[in-house]
Amino acid sequence: MNILWDPDPSAIERYRFALGPDTQALDSSGMVTRAIHDNTQVEQVIIGSDVPLDQACQLAEGARLERPELGVILLRTRVDVTALSQALRAGVREVVSADDHTAIAEALRRSRDLTSRLIGHASGGTVREGRVVTVFSAKGGVGKTTLSTNTAVHLAHSGLKTLLVDLDLSFGDVAISLQLVPAQSVFDAVSMSGNLDDQALASIVVTHEESGLHVLCAPNDPGDADRIPVPTITEILKVARRSYDYVIVDTPPSFTEHVLAAVDLSDSLILIATLDIPAVKNLRVAIDTLDMIGSPKDSRIIVLNRADAKVGLRAEDVEAAIKAPIAVNIPNSLTVPASVNRGVAIVLDEPKAPVATSIKELVDSHIRVARADDTPAGLNGSADGATPSARKSLFRGRK
Ligand SMILES: Nc1ncnc2c1ncn2[C@@H]1O[C@H](COP(=O)(O)OP(=O)(O)OP(=O)(O)O)[C@@H](O)[C@H]1O
Ligand SMILES: [Mg+2]
To answer: Is residue 24 domain-shared with residue 151, that is, in the same domain?
Structure first.
């Protein structure tokens, strides 16, 4: 997590987008020092522009001795050479203009990268973490749930330990799409917040018997969504990626705080386009937003769903509009709603159907390829292999 040290209580809102949801605001040097000392989850401290340079340097010097892996980033209204050299000498990692939110997000990403490499080095680099893949589109009804359920079922059916998390917390339909009757949901993690571990997580998932996929379903009551704190989602995903090879996240059609938390921890982001102008426009806006918050372009996989619909717009038009290549085209097919209505995954029910083969191509060529050591946990007997430094988070290596 990050700490923003700023005497101005409204600063957290100003920097919210650049710093991400996992940020706590503190207004005094004493509180920041205590947090660094007491809370090992704190990885980055961002010092606001109103904090005097001497105090900022003092904190950086102290932190360098006590927590060498901690990143300290200093925001200044004017970045001059004197402040820069004094800050860097004290151990500040980066000095960034307080007005440039993109630069702040990028500095934070670089700093997290370094922190996770330092932590990985200190722990011998033996902890393997699963990959988190978030399926997102800013427009509803484009195929997020279809794609996330079938992607997750295919991974699980291939022998990889996989969890599907339904983050469409108010209107999630993963359970109904897979004919699951969950006794528990994401909401049950709230009471365990702060103490969630792999066993606690295992107690609230439901198994899709046909594939072995584990599913953490959305709450039954749409009103519960607002009662799920963002840090609970972060905690679920951090615990999940330690115990699963793949964690697939289905999302609602908007950048909620919960979605941002998932994006923040994701290694890959599947963005869905369809051949209609509003969907393309929304995808462009989503891509701009992701650029703004410093999410790396190479983590994005653009999928064109219902790619062969004859509606006057072509795949090339979409690529030109979003200025990014389409990785996989998924055809339009009546077998999709038919399988959803029967509560079966098309990759299992009709594995040779063009829709199923293109979803499997997406998984095998674009999701699994990113991980060279992708052996089913059941085959190598453990989930060990990749070092934390080998992980590629969208915002880089948050723990
Ligand atoms: N390739 C396809 N061919 C035909 N129908 C499809 C295809 N992909 C999705 N659909 C249908 O489109 C509808 C919406 O799909 P889905 O529920 O996966 O979208 P979504 O993005 O999750 O929607 P929401 O934003 O409401 O959660 C469903 O009825 C589904 O069966
Ligand atoms: Mg959906």
So the answer is: no
Q: What is residue 392's predicted lDDT score, i.e. its pLDDT? A: 37
User: What separation in Å is there between the alpha carbon of 167 and the centre of ligand 1?
Assistant: 16
Residue 208's pLDDT is: 96
Ligand at minimal distance from the CA of 137 is 1
Same domain for 137 and 110: no
What are 13-40's pLDDT values in tens digits?
999 888 988 888 999 999 999 888 877 7
- Helices then strands, counting H and E runs in the chain, come out as 16, 13
- Minimum-distance ligand 1 atom for the alpha carbon of 142: 21
CA angle 164, 16, 295 (to 5 degrees): 55
pLDDT of 79 reads 84
Query: Does 396 fall in a domain?
Result: no
Same-domain status, 360 and 242: yes
CA of 39 to the centre of ligand 2 (A): 36
Instruction: Give residue 253's domain range.
Output: 131-390
Q: What is the pLDDT of residues 148-166, one digit of tens each?
A: 999 999 999 988 999 999 9
Is residue 281 one of the residues assigned to a domain? yes
Instruction: Looking at the structure, tell me whether residues 383 and 302 fall in a common domain.
Output: yes
Q: Pick the atom of ligand 1 nearest to 305's CA.
A: 1
285 alpha carbon – ligand 1 mean position (Å): 21
**Whether the predicted pLDDT of 382 surpasses 60:** no
Question: Which ligand 1 atom sits closest to the C-alpha of 340?
Answer: 31
Q: What is the pTM of this model?
A: 0.70
- Ligand 1: distance of its center to the CA of 291 in Å? 26
Between 309 and 81, the higher pLDDT residue: 81
Question: Residue whose CA is closest, atom 25 of ligand 1?
Answer: 140
| pLDDT tier for residue 369 given thresholds of 50, 70 and 90 | low
Residues 318 and 303 sit within 8 Å (Cβ to Cβ): no
Query: For the chain, what percent of residues have pLDDT higher than 70?
Result: 90
Nearest Cα residue to 20 out of 255, 226, 341, 218: 255
CA of 253 to the centre of ligand 2 (A): 8
Residues sharing a CB contact under 8 Å with residue 211, sequence separation 6 or more, in sequence order:
153, 154, 156, 157, 345, 348
Q: The domain that contains 33 carries what CATH number?
A: 3.40.50.2300
**Residue 378 in this model has a pLDDT that exceeds 70:** no
- Count of alpha carbons within 13 angstroms of residue 81, beta-carbon side: 0
Residues with CB under 6 A from ligand 1: 137, 140-146, 168, 253, 305-306, 330, 332-333, 336-337, 340, 355
User: Ligand 1: which residue has its CA nearest to atom 31?
Assistant: 337
* Inter-helix orientation angle 354-361/144-157, to 10°: 70
Whether 279 and 169 share a structural domain = yes
